[in-house]
């Protein structure tokens, strides 16, 4: 049965408007975004199937970055819709981090990085450039690599920090393998970058490893 044939009080959009988004399940919220289902399958049924297929909502939202075959009901148009929603969420968090000290919003930093790197299938190294109050001034993917590694050049990191007149930085890179544990090479690189940036009086506040929906902080792990 199509959602348009449901009783008014059971339709996800109407329930959202009357009771608020928190009253809806993940599948019902997703159904509002998808708008339509497929033959023999309502938007809510499709949403449930997609969430199950991707191992949960987080996996589904990461799927727009992955080179996986098109899933029935989730073609290019709907993938683009999901990608837009994820990017809007990331930018909204980024605006918040531009207005407050990142050390006072550790969860927001993690969410920002997960939305940015969690579904990328090749390694990327990103830098958050901070002002003297530790608010984000800018952020950029400085290096891109392969499935298993990327090359990071301290000279380019120092140059980028100087160009933005940064007082501090936070590093992050992803592990497409899904293993969130920092490697020995990750630890050596972090110390090398920390020493190079100390020469221009730029502090390294943290380095995050992102693997899917998980993050690991060097600072919290005593590795910084």
In words, what does this structure look like?
The protein is of the alpha+beta class and 224 residues long. It contains eight helices and five strands. The chain has helices at 12-19, 26-34, 43-53, 57-62, 76-97, 106-117, 154-163, 184-198; strands spanning 124-130, 136-144, 168-174, 203-211, 214-217. Helix 2 packs across helix 3. The longest helix has 22 residues, at 76-97. The radius of gyration is 20 Å and the shape is elongated.
How far the N terminus sits from the C terminus, by CA atoms, comes to 56 Å
Biggest sheet overview: 5 strands, mixed
What is the alpha-carbon Rg in Å?
20 Å
Q: Give the ordered list of helices and strands.
A: HHHHHHEEHEHEE
What is the percent of helical residues? 40-55%
Which terms summarize this structure?
224 residues; alpha+beta; 5-stranded mixed sheet
Secondary structure elements and pairings:
Elements: H1 12-19, H2 26-34, H3 43-53, H4 57-62, H5 76-97, H6 106-117, E1 124-130, E2 136-144, H7 154-163, E3 168-174, H8 184-198, E4 203-211, E5 214-217
Parallel strand pairs: 3-4
Antiparallel strand pairs: 1-2, 1-3, 4-5
Helix pairs in contact: 2-3, 5-6, 7-8
In short:
By secondary structure, the chain is an alpha+beta fold.
């Amino acid at each position: 049965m199509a959602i348009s044939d449901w009783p008014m009080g059971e339709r996800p959009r109407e329930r959202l408007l009357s009771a608020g988004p928190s009253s809806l399940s993940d599948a019902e919220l997703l159904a509002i975004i998808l708008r339509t289902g497929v033959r023999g399958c309502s938007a809510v049924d499709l949403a449930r199937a997609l969430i199950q297929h991707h191992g949960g909502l987080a996996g589904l939202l990461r799927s727009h970055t992955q080179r996986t075959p098109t899933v029935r009901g989730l073609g290019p148009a709907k993938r683009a819709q999901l990608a837009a929603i994820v990017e809007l969420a990331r930018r909204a968090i980024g605006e918040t981090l531009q207005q407050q000290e990142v050390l006072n919003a550790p969860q927001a930093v993690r969410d920002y990085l997960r939305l940015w790197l969690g579904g990328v299938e090749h390694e990327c190294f990103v830098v958050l450039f901070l002002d003297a109050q530790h608010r984000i001034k800018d952020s950029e993917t400085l290096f891109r690599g392969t499935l298993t590694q990327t090359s990071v050049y301290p000279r380019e990191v120092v140059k980028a920090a100087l160009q933005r007149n940064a007082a501090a930085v936070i590093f992050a890179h992803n592990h497409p393998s899904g293993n969130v544990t920092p490697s020995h090479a990750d630890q050596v690189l972090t110390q090398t970058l920390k020493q190079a940036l100390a020469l221009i009086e730029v502090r390294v506040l943290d380095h995050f490893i992102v693997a899917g929906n998980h993050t690991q902080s060097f600072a919290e792990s005593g590795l910084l």
